[in-house]
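Quick bug: Oxidase output formatted oddly.
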Amino acid sequence: MDNKYDAVIVGGGVLGTFHAYNAMEMGLKVCLVEKDAYPKGATTQNFGQVVPSGMNTKWQKFGRESLRIYKDIQSQFDISIRQNGTVYLASNEEEERLLVELRAINSGNDYESKMLTKEQCLEKYPGLRKDYVLSGLYFPQEVTVEPRVMIHKLQKYLMEQKGLDIKFDFPVVSCESDGSWVRVKNTKNEEVQAKKVIICNGADFKNLYPETFASSDLEVSKLQMMQTKPQGNYNLKGSILTGWSIRRYEAFHECPSFKTIKANEPKDSLQKKWGVHILFKQATDGSVILGDSHQYADAGNMEDLGYDLDMDIDDFMVQEAKKIIDLPTYQIQKRWYGMYSQCKNSDIYQKTIDNNIHIVTGIGGKGMTGSAGFSKKNIATIFNAQKINL
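Here's what came back:
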């Protein structure tokens, strides 16, 4: 019986790991399998912020539950969570109007936020240029994470303190149901069995069910990011999101003025071409992470995005960042890109195969913020638990 579980989760990224976490919280016996020696996909290549404020009403509920889960785990085991807030900085009256409208929406949702004057922004965020900022909207409950260490620390916590079985180097090659059990086999013909299997990784989905994958509406986004050298005694708290973020994030789509403001934007700018919005976040070593850009291709043609960094995009982001914050140094020590999948026509991809095999992927840029809360509800749904409220 050692290889039999209530649930086998395929994919050790943030979405899969929190499916495992929430299944264990329900008292289920769980095994998490990961094709690589350790997670190294989008979960480790993202910006590292948990910002329910940027999500639409539906996903903000998941994001707020994620915040609760992150903070609960952090109180028991260090997984790199820092509660230092998120600010959106308006650079003009249109963006300020969107901030005022978003604050009204969040007041109705009972989600804490505070408008900051120009002077308060300049005082709170050193180096912020007074010729850029007009006002800000601050969300004190939100947190940052260190994405390259968080998932490893989370999995260590789940193994050591919760008893989760994790099998690394377990590339799945077959997933077949005999009615009672689903048999999951890897390239070495090793097998685990489960009452339910949940596939939370796009690569495993593509390998196991290529026809279903090909007929999906999944697309891939490529994001470029970079990291400066440490900034000495300079201290920049929290996630800093700027005017282009205000014009991009889903939360603002619900603002009454959003459509009109978007319609008046120039159509042929480099910012539009490369999907850039400027973000800042200081890492624990004192460096500042800058981002990011968005380029898209159908999931079946992700090679079209290339495997190189486009230095024109990086140079453009640095040039724009310098218009917002005067950092002590803009010397770059590291550049990278991340790839994540999302759906063209829905907020996440879900497909059930043979009743007991569930595919859940394509969470897009919502992964770090939304996975913990969404997985809680999804696990309850899959195992027909009583309705839970988020």
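Actually, after a second look the formatting is fine. The chain has two domains: 1-81+145-217+345-390, 86-140+218-344. Closing.
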